């Protein structure tokens, strides 16, 4: 059998492999780092470069794609499940000596296997997030002053950063300053524009992004976990019992009078006829309405939620989930906490979350009551099951004691006779039968 790998073909112990060198193939050494696959946007030009900039959340060096025409992009990693290992096989046609491609159908290709099946997709990112750490530098709010954009840029970490190279591109610098104007108060001094962060404007900008995300781009997995399940109320099961029909009163009973009675006056006769007419009319009305008010079927179980969230509550929950996601992904921890506190103030945020808070409070109470009732029900079931097991053990114990007493009263002869093999022997009663 031909070998697929040999460290030294000349020292091979197989004489056939040594005689035929073509049967021996030496595999190249595996690379220490596997190449990565990047999916770049079509709008990006050839001048786009992969640069290193500080991450807005933790200020760590992170890779981004900077395009002079379309702006900045972040790389989103899409990983394959670890339970199903996968890889990519990349084929590249081998060019000829004159630089032209081989003819179509040529088997000569340069193949490469990528061990990891991860994809890095370039998605647009707002440059504002990269500037927020510099705009909200930790300093007293009263001492914040109007400074130039370059002064703000200098506050960003410079370690392993290509920020100065990126800002040297005029289009990208204009894009950065335009985004700064959306969240800063500006003044003109000495022919330059001075910037100072306005947290109210920043909150409005983040809320605007969160609304767009909540309305159409909220992932289904997040919506299912943080909206649907978060607002789901406990299930109530009610049994509807059938309603038995009531027998109407007989007209004969209500209008019957003794055959022989004293003579009545004219007023009494008219009153009696009136009473009979009214009673017959009431009986007919009861009979006509009886089928509509009687439910003749077996009892049915109705399952329904204790409460249901309204459309307003669902919309507020989606907005809050999107807002929290943006805060946790793109904002520094300190400014993220401040914006979370500002969101609770209706005058600052312009959004009232009172309906959502009321629903969540009611939902928490219902869940606590359901948990308490479930624990009580489980205890009662367990208690009844324990009593049944105790009764069974007691009965078994009593039976064992009775058998033991019977054995103690038996004589030795009886015990020996029980050990005798009576297979094939006739019973004693057979000798006393009538002939």
From TrEMBL:
<dbReference type="GO" id="GO:0032299">
    <property type="term" value="C:ribonuclease H2 complex"/>
</dbReference>
<dbReference type="GO" id="GO:0005654">
    <property type="term" value="C:nucleoplasm"/>
</dbReference>
<dbReference type="GO" id="GO:0006401">
    <property type="term" value="P:RNA catabolic process"/>
</dbReference>
<protein>
    <recommendedName>
        <fullName>Ribonuclease H2 subunit B</fullName>
    </recommendedName>
</protein>
<feature type="compositionally biased region" description="Low complexity">
    <location>
        <begin position="248"/>
        <end position="263"/>
    </location>
</feature>
<dbReference type="Pfam" id="PF17745">
    <property type="entry name" value="Ydr279_N"/>
</dbReference>
<feature type="region of interest" description="Disordered">
    <location>
        <begin position="374"/>
        <end position="422"/>
    </location>
</feature>
<dbReference type="InterPro" id="IPR019024">
    <property type="entry name" value="RNase_H2_suB_wHTH"/>
</dbReference>
<dbReference type="InterPro" id="IPR040456">
    <property type="entry name" value="RNase_H2_suB"/>
</dbReference>
<feature type="domain" description="Rnh202 triple barrel">
    <location>
        <begin position="39"/>
        <end position="126"/>
    </location>
</feature>
<feature type="compositionally biased region" description="Polar residues">
    <location>
        <begin position="270"/>
        <end position="295"/>
    </location>
</feature>
<dbReference type="InterPro" id="IPR041195">
    <property type="entry name" value="Rnh202_N"/>
</dbReference>
<keyword id="KW-0539">Nucleus</keyword>
<feature type="region of interest" description="Disordered">
    <location>
        <begin position="1"/>
        <end position="20"/>
    </location>
</feature>
<feature type="domain" description="Ribonuclease H2 subunit B wHTH">
    <location>
        <begin position="129"/>
        <end position="339"/>
    </location>
</feature>
<feature type="region of interest" description="Disordered">
    <location>
        <begin position="238"/>
        <end position="299"/>
    </location>
</feature>
<comment type="function">
    <text>Non catalytic subunit of RNase H2, an endonuclease that specifically degrades the RNA of RNA:DNA hybrids. Participates in DNA replication, possibly by mediating the removal of lagging-strand Okazaki fragment RNA primers during DNA replication. Mediates the excision of single ribonucleotides from DNA:RNA duplexes.</text>
</comment>
<feature type="compositionally biased region" description="Basic and acidic residues">
    <location>
        <begin position="399"/>
        <end position="419"/>
    </location>
</feature>
<dbReference type="Pfam" id="PF09468">
    <property type="entry name" value="RNase_H2-Ydr279"/>
</dbReference>
